[in-house]
Amino acid sequence: MTASIGATIMVGASAMPAMAQELLGQPTPGAGGIALQPAASELKHDAIWFHDVILMPVITIISLFVLGLLIWVAIRYNKKANPVPAKWSHNTLIEVIWTIVPVVILLVIAIFSFRLLYKYEAMPEPDLTVKVTGNQWNWGYEYPDQAVPEYISNMLPEDEAQARNVPYRLAADEAMVVPVGKTVRLLITASDVIHSVALPAFGLKTDAVPGRTNETWFNAERTGVYYGQCSELCGVDHAFMPIEIRVVTEAEFAAWVASKGGSMTAAAAEAAAAEVAPAAEATTDTAADAATSEPAATPAAAQ
User: Cβ(207)–Cβ(195) under 8 Å?
Assistant: First the structure.
C-alpha cells in the first residue's frame, strides 16, 4: 500500500510540470493563479523579480505597520482609555521622520524601477520586425523584413475554439508567428482609436495610438503558444481582440514565411540594394558631369 501511495504521488508530481507547460502563456486557474503569469522572456523575469523581491516586501511592511498603528491608536487613545485628550499640536521629530522615510522608500523603489524601465527601452539589435496595427476590432500583422504583407487576426468563434481545444476569447484565427530565441521588435500603431498590446508572458503592455508608432520588444525563451489581449477600452467589441503568438523554430518560421508569400532573403536583398544605390547615384552623377562638360568644349574646338 505504501508503494502504491508513493507511486501515485510520483505520478501526480510528474503531471504537474506538464500541466504548467500546457498553461504557459495563458491565465492559470486555481492556486497558481494568485501570482503573476509565468515568464517566457527576459523582460518578464526581471519584472517578476522587481514585483516579488522589491515591491511586495515594501507593500507588506508598510501595510502591517499602518495596521499596527491603527490598532494601537484605537486601543490606547479611545475615549474610555484616554478621557482627557492631549493638547500638543505637533512633534518636530515625528514630522521629520514621516517626511524622510517615505522619500527614502521611494528612492529605493526608483533605483530598481528605472533600471527595469531602461532595459525595456534599451532594445538589443532586432532579428525580426513585426508591425502591429490595432483596428476596431481585430489586429493586423505585417513583416516588412520578410516582405510578408499585412494579414488580419480575428478571434476564433466559440464553437471553433472548442473544436480545437483552445481557450475561447484568447485564441485567434491568424497568429503572430516568431522564431524562438530571436529579438522581436514590435512597431505598434492603430488605425482608428487607441488600443493596447498586452502580452503577460512577455511582460509587455504598449498602447497603439492612431498617427503614432510605439516600439517595444521581446525575446521568447521557448516554443509554444502565448496569448494576450487588447487592454485599452476601444469600443463595444473591446473584449474580442485577442493576441495569439506562436513561437516556433527557425525552420518552422521560414516555412511559415514562405506560406505567406514572403522570403527570408528579402531583408538581405533590401540591404544589398541599399548598398548599391549610393554607388549607382555616384555613377549617374559622374556621367552627368561629363555630359555637361562636353558642350562647353565644342565652341572652343569650332574656333
Answer: yes
How far is it, in rounded angstroms, from Cα 33 to Cα 27? Answer: 7
The amino acid occupying position 213 is T
Give dist(CA 12, CA 129) in Å, integer.
42
- 139: buried, middle or exposed (CB in 10 Å: 19+, 13-18, 0-12)? buried
- Nine cell digits for residue 101: 522615510
The predicted-structure confidence for 186-205, as pLDDT tens digits, reads as follows 999 999 999 999 999 999 99
Distance CA 149, CA 225 (A): 22
Task: Please state, as a whole number, how many other Cβ atoms lie within 10 Å of the Cβ of residue 84.
Answer: 5
Longest CA–CA separation in the chain, Å: 124
Whether the ω angle into residue 137 lies within 30 degrees of 0, i.e. cis, is yes
In the numeric block, which cell numbers belong to residue 234? Answer: 476601444
pLDDT tens for each residue of 62-79: 999 999 999 998 998 888
- Asked whether the CA dihedral 181, 182, 187, 190 is positive or negative, the reply is negative
DSSP string, 255-280: HHHHHTT--TTHHHHHHHHHHHHHHH
Q: What are phi and psi of 36, to 5 degrees?
A: -70, 155
H/E segment holding residue 136: none
Judge whether 259 and 143 are in contact, CB under 8 Å: no
Question: pTM for the whole thing?
Answer: 0.73
Measured from the Cβ of residue 125, the count of other Cβ atoms closer than 10 Å reads 6
- Contact at 8 Å (CB) between 245 and 222? no
Distance CA 222, CA 201 (A): 11
